[in-house]
Amino acid sequence: MNKDDHLLFLDFEFTMPEGKNNPKGFYPEIIEVGIVSVINKEIESEFSSFIKPIQFPILSDRCKKFLHISQEKVDEGMDFHELIDLLKKYDKGMPNTVITWGNMDMKVLRHNCQKQNVPFPLTGKFRDLSMEYKKFFGDSNQTGLWKAVEEYGKKGTGKHHRALDDALTTYNLFKLVEKDKQYLEKPTPTTIGDRIDLNKIFKKYAT
Prior knowledge:
Elements: E1 6-14, E2 30-39, E3 42-50, H1 61-67, H2 71-75, H3 80-91, E4 97-100, H4 104-115, E5 125-128, H5 129-137, H6 145-151, H7 163-185, H8 192-195, H9 198-206
Parallel strand pairs: 1-4, 4-5
Antiparallel strand pairs: 1-2, 2-3
Helix pairs in contact: 6-7
Pfam families: RNase_T
Organism: Metabacillus fastidiosus
Domain Exonuclease: 6-183
């Protein structure tokens, strides 16, 4: 299997601080995961689950309102260590590429692993599709995921800020960007008429 044949599209949602009255030492923890596993350009599997935060288990009102998520749903979620075991299974010990929109997902995952003293579960390459999109279209600012989809004249999948929906939206946007890249890398071959000025030839033989 080639290194780009196995693609993992990941999206996490995190806990958010309330404001000035944050717990001492607060840091974002993963509370929802969305995974889209793609092998040989076909979706192999999808996964979605809430994750119970460990260090700061009580969600802020801001977090619940922004993500439209309830404390009860998160409390019923899987354990963080179960998430790590799951990511190891998706990693499968084979070369793969993890694709996210933005770099925050991997930063928070690494930080959460460090805080829980567990090894980082992913061994493949990492691609930040938002930076690729920015460079490809020459944007000066980083574009939001759903805005980028709308710029293609498309709509995001499901609801924004739901982990699996965002992971699927990232996958769909990835396909659009890759198609455009291929189009630019393989321009239509020029014809002989494109290479020579036929008007000059006609004038030459007309005289």
